[in-house]
Amino acid sequence: MPPVTPKSPVKDWRSTLGMFSGDTLMKEIDEEGRRIREAEKKDQDNVTA
Smallest Cα–Cα separation from 17: which of 8, 26, 25? Predict the structure, then answer.
């Protein structure tokens, strides 16, 4: 039996690239995530030092 092929292309996460560029809310979310990662990294550095 031959494999079934979808009639339309499958969309994945790459279809969202650029969708939110320039969006103020997304910039705020990105910046907060950056702050959290930096704080976690700083905390981890203090534990291992």
Answer: 26
